[in-house]
Amino acid sequence: MHATATHPKKSHVHATGAVAACVTSRQQLEVATAQALTQGGDARLELGSAGLNQYGFAPRPDLGLVAFGSSTASGISEAGFQAATALQARLQVQPSHYHPALARQRQELLMLTGADRVPGTELVLAASGTDLHLFAMHLAQETDAAVQAVMVEPSETGSGVPAALGSVHFAHCTSQGQAVEAGAGITATPGLAATAVRLRHDDGTLRDRAAVDADFTVSVQRIVQAGQHCLLVLTDVSKTGLLAPSAACACQLQQLYPNQLTVLVDACQFRMSPATLATYLAQDFMVTLTGSKFVGGPAFCGALLLPPGVAQRTAKHALHALQDYTSRLDWPPQWPGAACLPDKPNPGLLLRWEAALAELRQFRSIPDVHIQNFLQVWAQAVATRLATDPTFEALPVAPLQRANSDAPGAWDAVQTIFPFLLHRQTRIGQRRPLSTAETTLLYHQLREPQILATIQTQTSSRFQLGQPVRRGHRDGIAVSALRLCVGARWVTQAAQSSQGVAVAVMQAMQAFDKLAELIERLPP
Prior knowledge:
By secondary structure, the chain is α/β, with parallel strands linked by helices. 40% of the residues lie in helices and 16% in strands.
């Protein structure tokens, strides 16, 4: 009787202890994963006092944040975090698993991006899009001639890109953890400052597409005629959704100057289909992309795709100057030029790409025609709201012209970044544009639960929009545009429910509603 009576109690204690140990172990594993996700990048990944990086994200999923700001960066999703945690668990048990995991990611990236459609394409990994521009500039230095880049205006791309394209350090600490002097050259010979072409007028309206192409052409010709090599950066797409110069312009310049020009496609937004990306590679254009914007992975996972011709020409190009930014493992196996680099794993980068691949894998499983249908419905609803609500003023975005735009299911011809200015009504019935300071304040307030809890709208959600982009002056006031964006995760979620599209549209409208309410609460 005593044995029978006490046995269940002992079993219960044993089971409870096992469960507690399991839970603790899982908690420790997730803590380790979150910590690793913040490593292997530069200062932008460091967490501040609120536990957020410079993009405003924690290394764990923020389930209460409605993300419409993928033009800036994306936060990690629950699916992405679980994928990263599973890989972290394998690495803790067997650290040598790093190398096969890296090889798997390479192969999967080539397949999911569409790069495998151009045999011979090679892939280089990097922490950020800025690093990728630095790598591309270095690879363009194939001859003794100085290299100068031609790019879009800095406000339309990453803040550190002009420095990277000038071959100078763009921050005080590199992704390899090396302290450097921002603004100093990465080699003893200073780089040439990049030439920038404006895409918009001072008031934010679009410049004529032909005029933009003409400016790129003149800049390239000036560089070539000076006996220099030109790195032409085709941005697809910019912070406010623009593509420049046109692919036709880039191709024409490449044909005119086959030995004096290298073309780099800045596709760090990664708002393109595999067919479009393969077309760029087939034209011998290098392509940069990240998994941390449209795709929806965590910030700081990038890749540089080298088409076969570029790969063959640059494979032996010594990479000594990049040793503070990259490791031999980031480059293709047996890459001759990378032999001088340190053999240093980057588990943080590996985990961030693991999370991004979880998103990309799901997105690629959806038929193109379904993606196109979702994006068209969502874009039409957002465009209509911006056109009919006097609180907002849409900045114009030119139609995206790509080689495959007319193909059935060509979803990447649909606008996915909507930049807009904010206005408030004055006492005399007119409207006044909000200043950059006011817009920045609202951008932060949209994410703050203590602010939003006081607003009487239909949802208590917090919203992330794209960071303010300076867009000149209106009525003597310096203004900036916010950006409402749709990303791959929205498409994936919509495909899982018959009401998915309606929910995505409703939440976009709620973001506008909350912005309008916050504007009303601003001091006069």
